[in-house]
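Need tokens for this chain, all 219 residues.
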Amino acid sequence: MLIRAKEETGSASVEQAGLAALVALLLIAAIAAVAADGEIEAGRGLAGTISRRIACAPRLPDACHHHPLVPAYGWPLARLARALAPAPVARLGPGGLPLVPVDFRRCRRESCAVAAGSHLTASGRRTTAFVALRDRRRTLGWVEIAYWLYRPGLGWERVVRRANQIQVEAASGTRVLLRDDPNLVPLETLPGRDHYEFPPAERPPWQWHVHGLYPGWSS
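Here are the structure tokens for all 219 residues:
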């Protein structure tokens, strides 16, 4: 039964891909017709919208509309994670420079993590915190959010916040925007999270300890 289910899932994916390709071809034809009538700008706008939708299709649910926290945790806990996020703090690195937390996927050197304000580095990079969440409200009555902060040369710092249901509800008015700082990255949906290589002194303590929420996409 399991093998059959997998086969059916695979065939459905192929059918969906074929349907998406057909729709794309029809829309391209419509754009060409609009452009032929002289409405070039309208055609360009329509093409841009279509390209964004097609690019969004393989991603997580609502990934093109909402912050990654939302598909990872749902709105109530996404708001809580944003509300409790620690403010970026600079710490002196091995070279004596003030370093802020950054995204290790884009910055592994002290030079790109030097503080230049409350939310940016001297190289224009955003401060970043990686998030891992455990919802234990049913058993222990609280949600635990671990914020993992990476500074090149200093390694990882863990900041833990706990909240009960009352605090979850109190955070319901918190906005969750892509432009917010620090940028928050949920580890549960981070592709290849357990396979990034680090020097021994900077190896993430969270590797192999965070359960993926979207097996096959985030594993």
